[in-house]
Amino acid sequence: METLYVLGGKELHGDIDIVTAKNALLPILSCGLLTARVIVLHRVAMFTDVSYMIKILESLGCIVTLIGDDLVVDTVLADKYEVREEFTKKVRSSIFMLGPLLSRFRRAKVAYPGGCNIGNRPIDLHIKGLKSLNVKIEERHGYIYCDGSNMRSGDVHLDFPSVGATENIMMASVGLKGTTTIYNCAREPEIEDLQNFINACGGRVSGAGSSIISITGVENFHDVEYTAIPDRIVAGTYMIACAMCGGGIELKNCEKSHNLALIDKLKSCGLNIRSKKDRLYLSMKSKPKSISNIVTQPYPGFPTDLQSQILALQTISRGTSVIVENLYESRYKICNELIKMGANIRINDRMAIINGVPKLYGANVTATDLRGGAGLVLAGLTADGYTTIEDVYHIDRGYLSIEDDFCKLGAEIKRINK
Ligand code: UD1
Fold this sequence. Notes:
It is a single chain. This protein has helices at about 20-35, 50-60, 85-90, 100-105, 125-130, 165-175, 190-200, 230-245, 260-270, 305-315, 335-340, 370-380, 395, 400-410; strands at about 1-5, 10-15, 40, 65, 70-75, 80-85, 105-110, 135-140, 145, 155, 180-185, 205, 210-215, 225, 245-250, 270-275, 280-285, 295, 320-325, 345-350, 350-355, 365, 385-390, 410-415. By secondary structure, the chain is of the alpha/beta class. The chain folds into two domains: about 1-20 and about 230-415, Enolpyruvate transferase domain (UDP-n-acetylglucosamine1-carboxyvinyl-transferase, Chain, Alpha-beta prism); about 20-225, Alpha-beta prism (UDP-n-acetylglucosamine1-carboxyvinyl-transferase, Chain). Strand 18 (about 295), helix 10 and strand 19 (about 320-325) form a beta-alpha-beta unit. It is globular. The relative contact order is 0.16. Uridine-diphosphate-N-acetylglucosamine (UD1) binds near residues 160, 165, 305 and 327.
């Protein structure tokens, strides 16, 4: 069991490189399988979720080699279509294998996915979408059995713009004769990145970034080298950290346009933000003001993956603020931990009402999910005295080494192996 020890009260100064996005790498890695080619991914950030996805690919017969931070995925010899429970309970994104397996083998057997502890995460939209492509699906004994022998392209209407369902259906369709059109799809930058990756391999996908995506089937793909987009949630976490701790930091390899909803909110709390090419320059000279109206929504709305971090910011802001979480009902688990640190928060169903306090105090807290864990690190960085954060493995799913990054910015934070 690993624990983070955080000593609060240091301003942040310095620069940091933003890694490639976990949520872009996961679908791209699974998509590689359907090409039956060799994929080289540059600047791969080895989040634990990424390493689990690699284990899944290896279990299917792919040969994966890490050279520096380049990942070479040889999918030519892959010959299995079953993803076992030992993998799926570790990483929810294992559900992304359905589309690529169907595309390549016309069949798939995938155990129900696990993942972050942030509430009920159904997969009905994935199933309904694949059924629209004439895939026969049975759910038995914890497994999803898909028979795609009569798959065909067609129209898919999503009842909600689910990121994962959009990606799965895109990947299932890339090899189908004719054109598949997905309506009401998610518009996240990671979906555009998946489109760019598929097209770089020889596929024909258009419309990603809008709510209608068209996929025209192709028969053959080619080897490809690709670099995923920067992680907007990691960048956003460090932006919020600067607003909380004060000081001045520079984020390198950042895509400002992916974080506009957050930037708008952070400007209103007093954070100074300038940008030049792929760099963001941030500085904070005063105590943050509370931010009004934070409502999580699908992209380009405010991202649920930054809700816990902005909630941590609100606990020490001047005034009262309200957050509405529309995507995941269990994302407020962090609040009990923040309350141990002196925060004043009331929860009413999907709404959190936060009265800013002058200071948080160091306490012994536990990360209960990935982004909530990051929120606790931010709270610890501003608190009086030491905060210890247990169950750090949640945080490692989406941050390469959160303590190294913050130490580089002048914070005092240490990982201890208990
Ligand atoms: C992706 C992100 C995750 C982020 C989330 C929302 C990856 C690897 N993960 O997750 O970090 O928090 O988008 O931005 O990209 N839903 C259904 N039925 C389904 C699928 C989803 O009801 O079949 C609901 C979910 O319960 C949730 C909402 O739709 O309330 C959004 O989920 P979705 O967009 O699918 O999120 P993920 O792809 O799982």
